[in-house]
Amino acid sequence: MNQHVSVPRISPPIRPEVDRALAPFVEAPVERPLPFAMRAWQQGWLRKGLILAALAVLWEALARWQNNDLLLPGCLATLSALAEGLASGELLERVRISLAVLAQGYLAGVGLAFLLTTLAVSTQFGRDLLSTLTAMFNPLPAIALLPLALLWFGLGSASLVFVLVHSVLWPLALNTFAGFQGVPETLRMAGRNYGLTGLAYVRQILVPAALPAILSGLKIGWAFAWRTLIAAELVFGAASGRGGLGWYIFQNRNELYTDRVFAGLLVVVAIGLVVENIVFATIERLTVRRWGMVR
Predict the structure, then answer these.
(1) What is the pTM of this model?
(2) Residue 239, Cα to own-chain centre: how many angstroms?
(3) Alpha-helical regions (H) of the chain
(4) Residues 206, 212, 216, 217: what is their CA dihedral angle, to the nearest 10 degrees?
(5) CA separation, residue 83 to residues 72, 74, 79, 242, 266 (Å)
(6) Of all residues in the chain, what percent carry a pLDDT higher than 90?
(7) Model confidence pLDDT, tens digit, residues 33-43
């Protein structure tokens, strides 16, 4: 006869939960600050400043090795001529004249490029017109049109404005149209659902979405316009005794003031650096970088 022996069931012990407050860990810092040298090297302005300083030292060393101020004045001699030109006010006046002409041509080119690309994104005829005109005139150097501009508009700032418009219009129109073509279809459909058409559609939908490409075109157009203006003033000279920065360089070259020539070139480079690293960098930081559209 089988006998069943009952085995008592043993339940696991229940451990009471205990919350223990731990003392703060203070033996070592949780976040270790970077060394000063590494924090300083992360500053972009410092790296660029060191590059400029190295170029200045190399320039001065090469000038002293050459030992001919007529061919290659040193960096210190150029800075001295620059200080003299700024103190006399002559260099500032030349810069003001050049920037005034540049602003007229640049703004006119931007306006025409915006109208042309607006027509291109609105109609098939506009696209054909843009592609045909850019294929024809974009490869044409702006300075090559200066003789015709002098015949058409005479010895005045209008001739310079004409070649500046040509140098700005086509690269900006191409970049803007490429940016418009890259706008996602969802944004386009959202604009149409809101009933946006024509200029309002371009201004509220296409321009914000294509702003990185537009800014790239603006920077390219600015560089082309600035180079074209200086070259045109070197060839064109002065109108009614009111020559700009290029004329200042050309005039001092004729008088063999090479240090002043280099001072004028230094001002050209400095203005380019200011516009690129302050004006356009500020616009990018306030728009596309804040919106997360570029890295």
Answers:
(1) 0.78
(2) 30
(3) 36-41, 44-66, 75-88, 90-122, 124-137, 146-153, 157-181, 185-193, 198-201, 207-209, 211-236, 245-254, 258-274, 280-286
(4) 0
(5) 18, 14, 6, 21, 12
(6) 15
(7) 777 777 777 77
Q: Cα separation of 175 and 223, whole Å?
A: 14
The predicted-structure confidence for 70-124, as pLDDT tens digits, reads as follows 888 888 888 898 898 888 888 888 889 889 989 999 999 999 998 998 888 888 8
Cα 114 off chain centre by:
18
Token pair belonging to 293: 């559209």
CA distance 79 to 87: 12
Distance (Å, rounded) from C-alpha 179 to C-alpha 211?
Answer: 7
What's the CA gap between 164 and 31, in Å, rounded? 54
Q: Is residue 269 packed enough to be buried (19+ CB in 10 Å), middle (13-18) or exposed (0-12)?
A: exposed
3-class DSSP assignment, residue 152: helix
pLDDT at 33: 74
Q: What distance in Å separates the CA atoms of residue 247 and residue 244, rounded to the nearest whole number?
A: 5
The answer to whether the beta carbons of residues 281 and 294 sit under 8 Å apart is no
For residues 239 and 155, is the Cβ–Cβ distance under 8 A?
A: yes
pLDDT mean over 227-245: 73
Name the CA radius of gyration of the chain, rounded.
Answer: 32
Query: Residue 275 in 3-state DSSP?
Result: helix
Helix 124-137 and helix 90-122, axial crossing angle in degrees, nearest 10: 140
**pLDDT for res 3:** 58
